[in-house]
Description:
- By secondary structure, the protein is α/β, with parallel strands linked by helices.
- The protein has a single domain, classed as Rossmann fold.
- The protein has 10 helices and 4 strands.
- It has a 4-stranded mixed β-sheet with strand order 1-2-3-4.
- The longest helix is centred in the middle third of the chain and has 14 residues, at about 80-90.
- The radius of gyration is 18 Å and the shape is globular.
Amino acid sequence: MAVISHSKKFIFIHNYKVAGTSLRAALTPYEPFYLRNKYSHYIKHKLFMRPHIKAHELRQRIPKEIFNSYFKFGFVRNPWDWQVSLYEYMRQDKHHFQHELACSFKDFKEYLKWRVHEDLHLQKEFFYAPDGEYLVNKIYKFEELSEAIADLNKTLGLSMSLPHKNKSQRKDMSAYYDAEASQMIEQAFADDIKLFNYERPILRAAS
């Protein structure tokens, strides 16, 4: 769920599996009511209640002056790492709506084939409108989380620290990828890789 703070005038757009649950918890003191509580009278569609509402969707559902004037930010993650984290979260969280589906795949590569061919979502969709308009003020990287927290504290006048919640248990990334799987990420997530300046990670050779 996005978080809006009136006292600090920010909007946090929650991309999934980028420490978003921890960030929401850390931001709670600056806004005791989440979007669904504070803006219940603006709700026009159940989409508004989604845990991971996108910036262009949010823009349609809150006052224009708030969306335009508040500092809007979010996080992205290396696509290779992002998909491993999402896969393990889906498998390990029995309450995830795709838990049974994730457990039905024989391995990560089979999951990845399904993801890129049947249910592909790019991280840029959270921060850009369908026509390509950039809708936020800043996009931080999960890999630079400590620096991002320091920058947010300075920019917004916060005193935020970050407990890590919703962390999935996982193996080394090399255990998930062979050349074919890595190439699938490179092709399917090419826009994210280019837009957010990511590179293919160096993977250890399988023993």
